[in-house]
Every structure is written in structure tokens, then in C-alpha cells.
Amino acid sequence: AKVLNVTSANQITVTHNGTVIPASFNNSTKEVSINQPLISGNNVFVVTGTNNAGVDTKSTTIVYKKPVAMLPPVVSFINPTVSPYTVNMSSFTVNAKVLNVTSANQITVTHNGTAIPVFNFNTNTKEVVINKTLVAGNNVFVVTGTNSAGVDTKSTTIIYRKLVTLLPPVVTFITPQGNPYNTTNANEVVTARVDNVNSQSQISLTYNGVQTSNFSYNSSTKMVTYNAALNMGSNTLSVAASNSSGTDSKSKTLIRKKPCVAPVLAYQIPLQSPHNHVGRDGNMAFTFSSANITSVSQISVTNNGYNVHVNLEQTNGNIWGTVPLKVGANKLIVKVENECGKAEKVLDVMYKGNTSKLVPPVITIQTPTSFPHTTAAASVTVVGKIDHVSSQNNVQVTMDGTNIPFTYNTATKVLTIVTNLTVGSHQVRVRAQNNYGNDMEVFDLVRTGPQIKAPIVQYTNLGNGNSYRSPFVSPQRSYTVQGRVVNHQNVTLNVYMNGNRLSNYSYNASTGVFSIPVAFPLQGQGTQRRVEVEVRASNSAGQHAKKGHLVYMIQSISTNPSTGNVGSSSTQTYKNYISKADSYYRKGELNQAKVYYQKAAQANPKASLPKQRLAEISKKLKAQKEVAKPVVKPITKPATKPITKPTVKPNASKVETKPAETKPVVKPSVEQKGVNKWTTKPIEKP
């Protein structure tokens, strides 16, 4: 502690639980040091400073708790609640609790005798989460907890029995994406996934009306691969598959196009040939429009046989520059060429020379004052002046090659351009002409900001690892698939269900959130009804598509009574509720978890897990509502007394001291700032 405005240890008293104890005092730093053994429980230290001006006292309490002896680990399984436990799906999440350990390094997990190196352990809830694909038959999971006090081991057995229901084949094209698919390649490798068949003999492939066996099928990955030699135009590929439960077929159209197009060239400024140029000098600005040209190296321009430097606008293909004319006839020749062809334009220009009466336009850009002009704003107003034109019709303004609106005041000669900018660089060109010539100004406006990123489709209520083999099992026949599009700026969204495009879905373009209603059909073979949804998102930065797989069990699945495997739709519904509730519980979303634990308790009243979790959630929610009342410190107003009090400040590095002859006597005033630090404030006496 620090005690200001005292000069010796005799002016300081320190007590511990009411007993005066020794302490050291540094008169230079005004710091009091106390070295005192603590007793179990509360230790109240009181520091009192005294001088002729008064007394100040502050106290602090230190609670000493002896360390608690470590307990040995205790392992218990949460899911499954019984052992052995029988399931009919290979994907399963094992949940266990290991008490009296502090990290995952104190826990080992094995599956059928093989260590599982990767699992999740929550140090707060002490819960171990094991996501493992089950093998057919017995799956023995052993969890062991170890600390310095001992070891505890528990095991559970999960029996995985595959469903014997044979599903009909499902054909899905994987690559290339899009139907029809356009390409300039002579060959395309086409891949398709064919599920629920065992061999290539159950698959037929037809290309352009002719059946072929020149394709491969991998029974492990379920992938069909075919190298298609494309004819110019449309090519049709069909894949069909069959088994004892039914057939399925899909077709894809591949369109081969020529890889390039010959260039195109046209007059723009001047609009035609021949052209009479009138001006004070012989410099003439020109512009030609072009297409299918990507580089200046593909352009050749000569004027009267001499090469001319030109510029190419990549955004619109405009070719422009300035040439010096001689008096009389001039010939400007522009040639463009690419790998598919070439084009040429000849501009004949007659220049009669300069006279003092000829006044061509003069363009002056006043604001912004320098270019390129960089801004974060979505709009920039450009102001300039154009002399020697009589009408707005004599002025043209383009941005990135496209005409944009502007205003021109013929009285003040002021030109005003209000631009709307997207992120990136934009080239603005201002042209003016009259009967005596033309003028042109070119400048760049650059808007900074975040670049558009390619979209990413995510489903939010189909569970983790959703796939054809691990579909989401719907608890009811009607279900709403929900998700969002990451990087949803300027996104176009298309939704498909079982390959058919949907229109009855909702999408919020501002947030990227979408909802897709799903109704499972009642008609069909077997007890499963399967639906596949696909969301495709695209913007200027790219595209992304993602499929979601859902299954609905319409009736109980018969099982062997001797195995104890219930395997009914009500059991599946219970598991679904438990899975959702556990997910919310692990995330700390207790209100959502409470809803699904209540549903699980209604689906299976005999189960103990939902009741146990509901009791835990009630305690946690009650604890969260207990909010401590805020502590309000009184504000001490300074008195007008000229005598100041001693001040105690925690760990102050400097103490300012006034000369003795001008320093007022102060009364101690100690304000507690921490466990063992105080600050005293001077109070002047009247």
C-alpha cells in the first residue's frame, strides 16, 4: 500500500484480524510493505495513516482456501444410455463424461481395440464427443480417464445392423456441371454417380443414340467415367441403371462450339470516310470500335505510311489515339487480327490547313484536380468547362465505353458529370466537336472497397456430414430446409429438388438466408422416402452448388425380436430429437436444447437422458438470471480547507512533492483500488 502525507512509520498502524502487526515504510516511495502469514478463511488487513491534519484508514480482506485433494477420474456414458445398443445407421456419435480430469491428454478412446486419436473434450462440461463410422456388427468403445489419483475405464457396445431394404438406382451427373454444358474442347470427361447397384453390368450408357460399353464403373466410389469425343454442335449422353427395385436414367447435353470469332472493326470518330478535318492545328483525335481483340499487339495503325501509337479499352474494345495531319489528303489505315481472322478500315481525311477564324473545342476538367482519382464513395461528381461548343449535342461522355448522362450549360460553359461507381477502376472519356475540330479528355476514377467473393452454400439444419450415405432423417413428412449463402453480394440463386427446378422457396438477398419446403411422397416402394435438394448460387466472382439429402421413414421397420433392435420410426424420431438437443446443449444454446429434450421425453417417456438434461438446463437457466447488483461509489467533493490530506496510490512510480514552505498539511484519506492497493485523495479544510 502507499500512504501519502506522512513522514515516518510512527504515523502508520497496520492490523491483521484486529492484531497490530509490524510493517516496513519507505519514506521516499511512501510504500508500506506487509509480510504476514495467512490463516484459513478471512484475513482482514487495516492500514491507518495519521498526521496533524487527520486520519485515513483503509482495509482489505484476503480469503485463504487450502487446496482440495485430487479425486480419481470417473467415466460414464451419456449416449448410448444402455449397452449393448443396436442401430441401423453407420454414422453415430458417442457421448461420455469424464470427471476429475482437466485435458484431453488424460483421456484415451478405443474402437474395437484401435485407438481413436481425434475426439472432442469440453473442459467445462467434462463431456467427450466421439464421431465414428460404425462397422457392421459389434462396435466396442472404451473410454479411460487417468490422473495422479487413479484410473477409471468404462466401455459400451453398439451393434450396427444394415437395413436390408434394397433401394432403386439413383443416377446423378457430377462433372461437367450444367445441362446443357457448352465447351470448345474436342473431348470432355463425363462422370456420374450411380448408387444402389453392385456392378457395371447393371449400367448402360448411350452416346448420341449409340449404346457403348467403353466406360468404367468403380463399385467402391460408385462413379461412372466416360471420355466423350464431341462433335460440333449438340451431343447427348444418357446413363441408365437398374436393379430389382427399379430403374433410373439421366441425360446430359454437351454442346461443342468454335473456340474463337474473327475480329470486327467499325468507324466511331469520325463516323465515316472520307472526313474533312477543320481546326487550328493538324492534330486529329480518332476512335474505332472493335470486337474479339484483347491486346494492342493485335492492332496496327498507320497514318500516311507512318506507325501511330494507339490505346485499346479492354472493357469495350475501343481503339483510339491522335494523329498529326498534313495539309491536303491523309490516309489513316487501321488493321486488327486474331487467330480466327482479321479486319481493316481506311479513313481518308482532308485537311485544308489552319486559319485564324477556326476555333475548335477546348475541354478543361476542373474537379477532381488530379487523376487517377481514388475514392471510397459510390458516386463522384466531375466538373469541367468546354469552350467553343454551342449545344450539349456537340458533347459526348462515356464511362468504360458506355454513354452516361451529363449536363452542359451553354451560358456558363460548365460541364457536370455525376458518376455511379462500382468497386474498381473506371475510364471516363469526354469528347467535344464543332465545325472546326474536336477535343478529348481521358481520365480514371477508382473506387476502393471490398471485392466481391465467390458464394458458398451452407445448410443449417441438415446436421453435420450430410451426404447420400448419411442423410438427414426428417421427424415428420413435411420439413423446411434452411441455410444461407456466404458472400451473397449480387448472388443469383436457383433451387432444385430431385433434379427439378423449384420456384416455391424463399430467399433474402440482404442476409443470404434461404428456406425450402419439402413434402415427402407417400407412394413408393419400401419404408424410406428420399428427397435430394440442390442450391446453386452464382455471382460475378464464381459459383457454388451444394446438395442436401433427406429421408423420411413412413412406417416401422421390422426387426429380429431376439436382437432387441426396436428400429421403428418413433425410435428414429427420438434419436433425431436427442441429436438436435445434444448439439444445442454443447453450443450452450440452452433454450433450444430444452425444446428438443422435451420432445425426446414425449417420444420416449421411459428414457432417462432427456429428464436428466432438462434438470441440468433448469439449474443453468436459473443461475443465468441471477444478476449481481451494481456497486455505486460515492463521489467525494473537495472541501475548501487549505490543508491537504495524505494520499495512498497503488504502485505509483512517481510522487510529486511541493516545497516544504508551500506544502499544506493534509488529512489522510485512503480509497481502496484493489485487493491490497489503495489511493488517498487530498481533502482541503476550510
Description:
There is one protein chain. Strand 28 (299-303) and strand 29 form a beta hairpin. Helices cover 7% and strands 47% of the residues. It is built from three helices and 53 strands. The strands form 13 sheets. A five-stranded mixed beta sheet has the order 8-15-14-10-11, with no helix packed on it. Helix 1 runs antiparallel to helix 2 and helix 2 (590-603) runs antiparallel to helix 3. With 686 residues, the chain is mostly beta strands. The radius of gyration is 42 Å and the shape is flat.
Entry summary:
This protein is mainly β. The protein is built from three helices and 53 strands. Helix 1 (569-587) packs antiparallel against helix 2.
Instruction: Quote the distance from N terminus to C terminus.
Output: 28 Å
| Biggest pleated sheet | 5 strands, mixed
Unreliable parts? 556-567, 627-686
Which strand order spans the largest sheet, edge to edge or round the barrel? 8-15-14-10-11
List the helices and strands and how they pair.
Elements: E1 12-16, E2 19-20, E3 24-26, E4 31-33, E5 41-51, E6 54-64, E7 74-79, E8 85-87, E9 91-99, E10 107-111, E11 114-115, E12 120-122, E13 127-133, E14 137-147, E15 150-160, E16 170-175, E17 181-183, E18 187-195, E19 203-207, E20 210-212, E21 216-218, E22 223-229, E23 233-243, E24 246-256, E25 264-269, E26 275-277, E27 283-291, E28 299-303, E29 306-307, E30 311-312, E31 319-324, E32 328-338, E33 341-351, E34 362-367, E35 373-375, E36 379-387, E37 395-399, E38 402-403, E39 407-408, E40 414-420, E41 424-434, E42 437-447, E43 456-459, E44 472-473, E45 478-486, E46 492-497, E47 500-502, E48 506-508, E49 513-519, E50 528-539, E51 542-553, H1 569-587, H2 590-603, H3 609-624, E52 670-672, E53 678-680
Parallel strand pairs: 8-15, 17-24, 26-33, 35-42, 44-51
Antiparallel strand pairs: 1-2, 1-5, 3-4, 5-6, 7-9, 9-13, 10-11, 10-14, 12-13, 14-15, 16-18, 18-22, 19-20, 19-23, 21-22, 23-24, 25-27, 27-31, 28-29, 28-32, 30-31, 32-33, 34-36, 36-40, 37-38, 37-41, 39-40, 41-42, 43-45, 45-49, 46-47, 46-50, 48-49, 50-51, 52-53
